[in-house]
Amino acid sequence: MSFSALSLNTQLVDTLAELGYQQPTPIQVEAIPAILTKQDVMAGAQTGTGKTAAFALPILQLLMADNQSDHAAKAIRALVLVPTRELALQVQQSFVKYAKGTDIRVGIAYGGVSIEAQQAVFNAGIDVLIATPGRLLDHLRQGALNLNQLNTLVFDEADRMLDMGFMDEIQAVLKQVPAQRQTLLFSATLDDSIFSFSKNLLRDPKRIEVAKPNTTAAQIEQRVYAIDSDRKTEFVSHLVRSKNWQQVLIFSRTKQGVDKLTAQLNKLGVATQSFHGDLSQGAREKVLQEFKQGLVQVLVATDVAARGLDIAELQYVINFELPFIAEDYIHRIGRTGRAGSAGLAITLFSQEDALLLEEVETLLDKRLPQQWYPGFEPDFNKMLPEPRRNSKAAQKQRAKKRALGGKKR
């Protein structure tokens, strides 16, 4: 199927051809026609499926068709809410690429940078705004933005916004947008929290699922290496150096863990940088640019910081530890294998993570066989792990413990 078959106009189709887009992805085939007819949409789509274009292209076409003479001044008519600064930048860049040759202006609002500089852009007039909830509220409270003309509201990676505790900010934003609007919700996972959130938000939405919920992309090879905890860093260094891997993304659970692993890998001769929320926005952008350019071989990140990263042809993801939340495993390895390319996701498994691995396998509904890597086999003289429990009661008990104990990222 071609993009023109989706009722996109000639200008957008030509732009896509210039960008090298050959045919629409499944999420684009389903979502674009629905959005063009101004339906609400609820879509389950993992990263790397082309979901940004799935909502950006029809939004741009609707804006291009809108009679500008009806507007005394440029007004925000499309708002895209995203959970992180990195995703905001990625989505903005996509809108700008697709809007080439039009007079549509795209603005962005996220924390960590000058609020006055952002407001100067708004004052010149914008049609589309991509924003994180917190910074958007800052602008609204200062009277720098008016959402009265809004036609389309998009929640991108809605599951992550809920995970990060943005519900209060989202509710505050909803009070300032028109009740009569088109609402689009995109989420990597469609679970009970998303359905509850969307119940009073969407009106008779078209529901789209491009893959079975909680599945990983078929082109991602998943390996689990059983290894002693005290040899993980040495093993990572061996893999990266012996195989000359470039652009390796490693996940650690905490900021402290990220910084510790970064220091250890650099000491072992692997060019490594940290990527987490304590870095300034400028520092994060610099690190990410160096990683994309190949100046940094390994990027060690927390789950929250890495959400929304878009690194073309990223081949390698390593879970230094398994995440406390099983769904985060899907988000992590979804950084690779994007747009149909092959990817390798490696999990370093030690005995203390036995129950976490079980929860991931339960979510995926399949086993992830453990392997031994020659020279890094686990020490069998050490204490063996407890028998793995696969009961729902055990999972609920562990979830309750984590909730009461809190979680750092």
Rg calc: 22 Å
- The low-confidence runs, each spanning 5 or more residues with pLDDT under 50, are 404-409
Number of DSSP strands?
14
Number of domains: 2
- Identify the CATH homologous superfamily of the largest domain: P-loop containing nucleotide triphosphate hydrolases
The strand line-up of the biggest sheet is: 3-4-2-5-6-1-7
CATH class of the largest domain: Alpha Beta
Q: What is the count of DSSP helices, taking H or I runs of 4+ residues?
A: 16
Q: How does the overall form come out from the CA principal axes?
A: globular
**Helix-and-strand structural type:** alpha/beta
Spell the H/E element sequence.
HHEHEHEHEHEHHEHEEHEHEHEHEHEHEH
What characterizes the major β-sheet? 7 strands, parallel
Domain DEAD-box RNA helicase Q: 1-29
InterPro entries: DEAD/DEAH_box_helicase_dom, DEAD/DEAH_RhlB, DEAD_box_RNA_helicase, Helicase_ATP-bd, Helicase_C-like, P-loop_NTPase, RNA-helicase_DEAD-box_CS, RNA_helicase_DEAD_Q_motif
Domain Helicase C-terminal: 219-384
GO cellular component, one term: cytosol
What's the structural blueprint in terms of helices and strands?
Elements: H1 10-18, H2 26-36, E1 41-44, H3 51-65, E2 78-81, H4 85-98, E3 106-109, H5 115-124, E4 128-131, H6 133-141, E5 152-156, H7 158-163, H8 167-174, E6 182-187, H9 192-198, E7 206-209, E8 220-226, H10 232-242, E9 248-251, H11 255-267, E10 272-275, H12 281-293, E11 298-301, H13 303-306, E12 316-319, H14 326-333, E13 343-349, H15 354-364, E14 370-371, H16 392-405
Parallel strand pairs: 1-6, 1-7, 2-4, 2-5, 3-4, 5-6, 8-13, 8-14, 9-11, 9-12, 10-11, 12-13
Helix pairs in contact: 2-3, 3-4, 6-8
